[in-house]
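[job 0412] stage=fold_complex status=start
inputs:
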Amino acid sequence: MRFTFLGRRSRGDTKVKTLIIKFQFDGTDFVGWQMQPGQRSLQGELTKAFELKTGIEYKIIAAGRTDTGVHGISQIATIKIDDFRIPEEKIVPAINTVLPNDIQLLDAQIIDEDYNARFDAISREYNYYITSDYSVFKRRYFAHYKEKLDINLMNEAALSIIGNHDFTTYSKVNNDLNHYGCKLEICQWLQINETDIKLHIKSNRFVYSMVRSLVGTMVDIGSGKLEIDYLKNSLLKKDRSLCSTIAPANGLFFEKAYFNSEYRILK
Amino acid sequence: MRFTFLGRRSRGDTKVKTLIIKFQFDGTDFVGWQMQPGQRSLQGELTKAFELKTGIEYKIIAAGRTDTGVHGISQIATIKIDDFRIPEEKIVPAINTVLPNDIQLLDAQIIDEDYNARFDAISREYNYYITSDYSVFKRRYFAHYKEKLDINLMNEAALSIIGNHDFTTYSKVNNDLNHYGCKLEICQWLQINETDIKLHIKSNRFVYSMVRSLVGTMVDIGSGKLEIDYLKNSLLKKDRSLCSTIAPANGLFFEKAYFNSEYRILK
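[job 0412] stage=fold_complex status=done
writing structure:
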């Protein structure tokens, strides 16, 4: 485990512990993960809830930093603690009483080492939902495309980008990153029912707007606007101008982060 | 059909026509059907949309007047018109462009007679959804009860009130009504999956808060707080003080109104 020894302070000091939380959120009314002044962010609401219950303003680190409008089925975050005033088994109900009802803790565990959800996650998984049937009950959770989409064409394109690639073409600029290389493990469209489809995608890492950028181009392939080999060819060119319209955020769900760990909460 | 002859004006006058609309809505952010100053109502939003597109403030009458937070899968409303400036087949897309995205037209039809969704509906159907598994994605559309509910007990109670009864016990006071008699045709709980159940209920009419009042008492029966025969006995007593806690609005869906009619839109 990273930092296992480095993270523990020398004899006499309090040992470093980590509180790991698992949570879900309906992203519709959030500006995304990152705390921003005057905005309603996931990190902000969580920080406020923990502060209300403990009196301490903790720094909370998520396994994936989602954008405005993106949802989370099972997100993991870590909080470095010395000591924590709420007993482990009471954390979920206590924090949920002060969280707004579009974000809720599912689980919490305290471990005796330093752990970082962002750096220790080994891969992430998303689903992207598309419907051809607009309904007020789907509007928050599905992107709506009127065009008839050929899921077989979309799957051929999806299959062509599995593996290690530089995703510059399908990423926004991010100066914090050294490189745009990602190892795509799963990229597959599935038919849910007559009107609804979803993309299941898993990678060791995702660069900014990567899923929504890939979806936008695959939708253009499914509707016949672009050829199947457009996706693979444009990827190899590492040229952002080749990316089609970015798909809307409301169809995107952060499904799960994977860790190489024996801790219950991280499985 | 009621008013078929009375409704047509005498020779020389413009004939009375009716625009019938079918629509769906996510009731979470509405105060319910009825227009109220300074409030966001379904009738208000529809009236505004029709006025924006036609310049005329029409009176819109719904087959069922839902409460704050109650949803609609397929609601019917009628609008008395002489003449209508949007061609019939363009009404749905035109009005939808100016409606907010939590209410949408599904269909529209113009008929050559006077028709009233409220008085001409012969029965109404609702579903009420309950989950034992709280999730941010269910919070808008399911009532959450932690207690273990015995659906068999609830169904025995439900069955006991089928038929013609005075529903005073399970209604709020409404001075506009002459009587609280309703003929319950269907009242049945169904298991959807391990954590979710729904009540399917159909009646010629529903009095104020009737479904939510019945659900509240049936939940108390399902959790063992009340005996099975409590529902039937309390109904016969016509005493409002015997009604248990009213179930929350978010689980209630107006499913459909029934009409004795050959018009496509009313089937």
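[job 0412] summary: Chain B has two domains: 17-115, 122-255.
[job 0412] exit 0
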